[in-house]
Amino acid sequence: MQIETANRKELRPFLTELFDAQHRQHFGEEVLAESEQELALCAKKDGQLLGGIIAKYQYQTLHISMLVVDYHARQGGVGSALLQAMEELAFDKGIQTITLTTKDFQAVDFYLKNGYQQFAQLEDVPMLGVTKHYFVKRRK
After folding, report:
1. Apex 134 CA angle, 132 and 136, nearest 5
2. Between the N and C ends of the chain, which has fewer C-beta atoms within 10 Å?
């Protein structure tokens, strides 16, 4: 056996087929039809972008990958409004769990204030001196 650098475009179909076979064996054929999908929302005022949120979901879980509000629009409820709108959209689609990560210099208190529970943190990730926080919110 040897380990070598691979071409992602060539490797992905092989790995996808292995994952799909594993999912078929465990969940059945119908679950595979639920491929990962992306959702994106933005906040605007007078045609000007104030912020946005991007998330991906598959099965019954949504992961928020980005939520950013322009510096000049912060503290005005834009972030909370975006987050709430994404939650409503997700829960309307049958999503049961929302996850996200943030770093200690970003928005830990913001997510706690918005009802997210921290379930883990890793110090020195993604670099020395930074802590990455992991959050979850479950449908009530």
Report:
1. 160
2. N
**Distance, CA of 86 to CA of 15 (rounded, Å):** 31
CATH topology (fold) of 35-138: Aminopeptidase (3.40.630)
Sheet holding 97-103, edge to edge: 37-45, 48-58, 61-69, 97-103, 131-138, 117-123
Instruction: Say if pTM beats, i.e. exceeds, 0.85.
Output: no
Residue 54, Cβ neighbours under 10 Å: how many? 16
120 contact partners, CB below 8 Å, separation of at least 6: 133, 134
Within 10 Å of residue 87's Cβ, how many Cβ atoms?
A: 20
Kindly list the averaged pLDDT for each block of 10 residues, start to end, along the chain of length 140.
Answer: 90 89 81 76 92 93 95 89 96 95 94 97 96 95
Residue entry with tokens 């605007």 = 44
For the chain, give every domain's residue range: 1-33, 35-138
The amino acid present at 109, given as its one-letter code, is D
Q: Which two tokens stand for residue 134?
A: 């992991």
Strands 117-123 and 131-138: antiparallel
